[in-house]
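To: structure desk
From: M.T.
Subject: fold request, one chain
Message: Could you run this one when you get a chance? Sequence is below, nothing fancy, just the single chain.
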Amino acid sequence: MVKVLLSCLLAGLWLHPFAQPGPDPRFELYILMGQSNMAGRGPLTDSLKLAGNDSLLVFNKQRAWVPAHHPLHFDKPAIVAVGPGLSFGLEMLKQSNGSRVGLVPCAVGGTPIEHWLPGAYDSATNTHPWDDAAERIVAAMQSGVIKGIIWHQGEANSTPGKAQQYLLQLQELISRVRNLVGNPQLPFVAGELGYFFDHHEAINQQLELLPKLVPNTAVAQAGGLTDKGDHVHFDARSADELGKRYAIKMMVLLKK
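Reply: Done. Structure tokens follow.
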């Protein structure tokens, strides 16, 4: 009986490793939002299967904190693979001064930015991208402190008519998530679309304007990165490199 109780206790501690009266200020959380290139579609290589660190955790589908490894997301289990989130988290961990780092994956492949509105439904994935993300973020905040957001989205909004509205929609999303976490200056880093994507300029030109219009934002560049052969998704090496570029930009914003 004692062994059973002990096993249950240990299981509970693992699911809630930061159980305490309030959020742990030394547990630094980062939100991963967007569509498929944030979720990750780069084929998983043998070396990347081993990537991780005991102090880097991920808020999984069951809303438990577990060690972070590829894949982080669960939007489309049959195809989800390597995205930028893990390498981003590992780089942020190096700068955390002994704090643990937690990643909160919220990306949903194929979703246009207009489906990242309260109440909006994405029929292709049977999800409510914003509502689902908001619930996960609020739940994760019970354990730690949200330090920033990385965002990669725009392929679904790259047609001329949609691209012209993109920057305004992105500004509104940034304001909404900052309000949600109670930090009007929460650092936000957007990633450029891969230059191999036929319509990347339509969105990247809009992103270039973001830091001038919204305080405490930055853009991670995609120059030199390659696709996995479909002209849409980063390959594993490039997704990993993009995560490091996100981290560089995030560190600059956090130092302000």
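Reply (cont.): The CA atoms of residues 113 and 244 lie 24 Å apart. Let me know if you need anything else for the meeting.
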